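Good morning,

Attaching, inline, the backbone tokens for the sequence recovery test we're adding to the shared suite. The designed sequence is right after.
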């Protein structure tokens, strides 16, 4: 078990708590989910903030709340509507989880969000940190928050080295966070810690000279705050070439919907798939469309190539103009399919890479580029 380099006495801990809350009262960020003491909005914001920076999440939060102002409106919506509101944000399991939890809470709890840790952890998309944040900020309960900002602060305050992602160090951090949380104003303290990490105790070039609690900080005293936490070695992301078909029929284009589970689940896309070793992009597209839709196509000219990075891999998406040679599209490798006009494409939620293809279609008529 990793041991912190320093600890705080009860008096030091009390002084740190008071100093940090006082700093927060003067410097807190104006975030939209803080303007209402509403557990629903806290839950939505915490889920949207998973894997997403605050500045990126804010416009999606506004869009989400405008479209689904409460749990009942979210539960009554179709999953496709929820995905459309979150289009472009990535990590679409969050949107699916928000929708499924809303329906479950309406059916099982008359629309009441659980107020116990055990019940919250049973819901999809709610892990320990999200549950703690909801209980603390949404219900005023004494549960510590341990997001990336707080982990970094605690590592520096107490001199906890090593890879914080490892289980043993995570357990130490939770213990420290519990001990440091005041019994009074736990929500304010948790939000103060998150704001301190966002504004002062940043990953690079922390502003230690303006930090309200630097006098307690082991990393600051060591003279090298950026040494904490230890930065884990990151391997290179694998890269894949993916072919996608813009299959045209008259004035319409064929789009398919991914199965609800897994990466990009429930989103619409231009059919295709990953190229196998030794395979040309055109051959890959013909094979994938045959496997997915049970049709053969004539693969025409290239339309647009898009590079896109996901969390654990990168792709180059190669789109080609196509026409059906033989067969009627079948839902074999997809959950749904539709023939739509270019103008109708905005009605559907697409991955970001496919959305770039759509934007080009609006300015470059693909039908005029396909040879007869």
């Amino acid at each position: 078990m990793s041991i912190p380099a320093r600890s705080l006495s009860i008096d030091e801990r009390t002084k740190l708590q008071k100093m940090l809350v006082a700093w927060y009262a003067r410097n807190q960020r104006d975030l939209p989910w803080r303007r209402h003491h509403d557990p629903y909005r806290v839950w939505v914001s915490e889920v949207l903030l998973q894997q997403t920076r605050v500045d990126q999440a804010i416009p999606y939060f506004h869009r989400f709340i405008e479209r689904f102002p409460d749990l009942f409106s979210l539960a009554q919506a179709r999953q496709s509507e929820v995905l459309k509101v979150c289009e472009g944000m990535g990590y679409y399991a969050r949107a699916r989880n928000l929708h499924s939890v809303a329906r479950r809470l309406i059916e099982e709890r008359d629309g009441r969000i659980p107020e116990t840790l055990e019940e919250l952890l049973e819901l999809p998309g709610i892990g320990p940190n999200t549950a703690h944040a909801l209980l603390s900020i949404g219900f005023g309960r004494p549960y510590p928050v341990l997001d990336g900002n707080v982990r970094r602060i605690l590592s520096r305050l107490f001199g906890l080295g090593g890879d914080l992602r490892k289980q043993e160090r995570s357990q130490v951090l939770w213990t420290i966070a519990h001990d440091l949380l005041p019994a009074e104003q736990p929500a304010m303290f948790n939000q103060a810690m998150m704001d301190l990490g966002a504004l002062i105790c940043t990953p690079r070039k922390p502003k230690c000279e303006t930090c309200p609690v630097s006098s307690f900080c082991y990393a600051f005293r060591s003279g090298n705050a950026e040494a904490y936490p230890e930065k884990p070695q990151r391997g290179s992301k694998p890269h894949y070439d993916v072919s996608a078909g813009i299959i045209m029929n008259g004035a319409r284009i064929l789009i398919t919907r991914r199965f609800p589970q897994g990466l990009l689940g429930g989103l619409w896309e231009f059919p295709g798939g990953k190229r196998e070793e030794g395979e040309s992009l055109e051959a890959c597209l013909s094979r994938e469309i045959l496997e997915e839709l049970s049709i053969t196509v004539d693969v025409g000219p290239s339309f647009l190539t898009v590079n896109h990075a996901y969390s654990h891999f990168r792709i180059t998406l190669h789109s080609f103009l196509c026409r059906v040679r033989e067969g009627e599209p079948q839902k074999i490798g997809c959950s749904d399919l539709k023939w739509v006009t270019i103008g109708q494409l905005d009605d559907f939620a697409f991955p970001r890479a496919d959305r770039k293809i759509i934007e080009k279609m609006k300015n470059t008529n693909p039908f005029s580029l396909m040879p007869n």
